């Protein structure tokens, strides 16, 4: 079943805010929260993430029914990519070196910002590239 394209973009906006604050403050716990959000989105799809739930319950009823849909697999893959970067960031902030936490969090922030501001999902594009490569290899 396809998903409302506005949901992942809303989630990316919240992710951008959370990662920006985590990056500026170096907050391990805030990054841990975002890592959990990525894990839930990767495991159950973006609709199962806390931001997907918030979009479904508080935002979508106020903005009307969707007019555009997308396949759920690319955003779910993007959540898994975000999970990897956030996990590496947690290692950097928790165990060191700090620059690793800053770099990984910054990379995740850049990707989330691109999606939130411009609707360009790097993780989704990676998913499509991987699909093209694996289909050709078969």
Descriptive account of the structure:
By secondary structure, this protein is mainly α. 80% of the residues lie in helices and 3% in strands. It is built from 6 helices and 2 strands, in the order βαααβααα. Strands 1-2 form a two-stranded antiparallel ribbon. α1 packs antiparallel against α5 and α2 packs antiparallel against α4. The model has no long low-confidence stretch (mean pLDDT 96).
What labels would you give this structure?
6 helices, two-stranded antiparallel sheet, globular, 138 residues, mainly alpha
Q: How would you write the strand order of the largest sheet? A: 1-2
* Total E-strand runs: 2
| Order of H and E elements | EHHHEHHH
- Give me the number of helical elements: 6
Biggest sheet details:
2 strands, antiparallel
| Estimated radius of gyration | 15 Å
Rounded mean pLDDT score: 96
Oligomer state of the chains in this structure:
single chain
Overall form: globular
The structure class reads mainly alpha
Report the helical percentage.
over 70%
Fraction of residues in β-strands: under 5%
Point out poorly predicted stretches. none
Distance between the termini: 26 Å
């Amino acid at each position: 079943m396809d998903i409302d394209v506005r949901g992942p973009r809303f989630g990316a906006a919240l992710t951008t805010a959370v990662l920006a604050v985590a990056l500026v403050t170096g907050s391990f716990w805030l990054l841990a929260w975002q890592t959990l959000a990525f894990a839930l989105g990767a495991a159950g799809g973006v609709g199962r993430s806390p931001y997907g739930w918030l979009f479904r319950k508080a935002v979508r009823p106020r903005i009307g029914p969707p007019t555009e849909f997308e396949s759920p697999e690319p955003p779910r893959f993007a959540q898994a990519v975000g999970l990897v970067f956030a996990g590496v960031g947690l290692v950097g902030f928790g165990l060191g070196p700090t620059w690793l936490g800053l770099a990984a969090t910054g990379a995740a922030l850049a990707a989330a910002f691109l999606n939130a501001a411009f609707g360009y999902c790097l993780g989704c594009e990676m998913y499509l590239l991987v699909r093209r490569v694996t289909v050709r290899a078969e």
